[in-house]
Amino acid sequence: xxxxxxxxxxxxxxxxxxxxxxxxxxxxxxxxxxxxxxxxxxxxxxxxxxxxxxxxxxxxxxxxxxxxxxxxxxxxxxxxxxxxxxxxxxxxxxxxxxxxxxxxxxxxxxxxxxxxxxxxxxxxxxxxxxxxxxxxxxxxxxxxxxxxxxxxxxxxxxxxxx
Amino acid sequence: xxxxxxxxxxxxxxxxxxxxxxxxxxxxxxxxxxxxxxxxxxxxxxxxxxxxxxxxxxxxxxxxxxxxxxxxxxxxxxxxxxxxxxxxxxxxxxxxxxxxxxxxxxxxxxxxxxxxxxxxxxxxxxxxxxxxxxxxxxxxxxxxxxxxxxxxxxxxxxxxxx
Lengths: 162, 162
Known about the structure:
By secondary structure, chain A is mainly β. The first copy, chain A, is built from no helices and twelve strands. At the A-B interface, strand 1, strand 6, strand 7, strand 8 and strand 9 of A face strand 1, strand 6, strand 7, strand 8 and strand 9 of B.
């Protein structure tokens, strides 16, 4: 059975149909690992890979993979667009509108528009999850730990909505 | 750590933020398992679950989970919209524009617009994968095994584009 694919240009460049195998560390070969957002102290230990979407994509969505190192956390933030998340590996918790939910592989997480949210790795292995969003979406509002808007907007994603 | 979620209404009803745990069989508790398409002989052994998207969703995408029983295959078809697929379990192969690619858990598959494609379970366990599509998308054209358009359009998805 031939397996002639594994395109190595990756990262939302939309070069045609392909299969990209994941590597042992959980990421995808040849797809760039990017910073999560600008460093602002509200998050730590997060990387992202853009699997589908981006400037070359014909689609209205982006499929991203986020990985949080042990102890890592995403920004606490809110926005009008929805997140559809599926946990692939590791363990941790999701803060959703003030409620904490345990996460394990296979969990589906919906983050509804407007709900403050944060993902945290509470385990000893990387916490990895897929997250689907609209390609055109609003810029997140960063929140303090108690849920108030932060005075900084430096937490905006480096990869801005198009 | 409270874990108060697991909304059981599911299936794209977008009732708010939630965590839905997957069950041992690979699906998600409380999210309806639906027929794949109208039976037309071109596919077999396929079920789907709509995790995100649908009439109540504010988003421009749908996140679906497909599961193929051993020996099962999706329809051989083509369309203008893109598929972004991540394999969660099992083994099999993807036919992409006439080339066969082995599939294993963790693989990312892009099906580019216009490329004929089919997913097949060649293993002894269910083959399960996530598939993201635009909410607004064209109707697939079913193909014969040699890639010619089929005279039937009965293979259209039961869940029509909105």
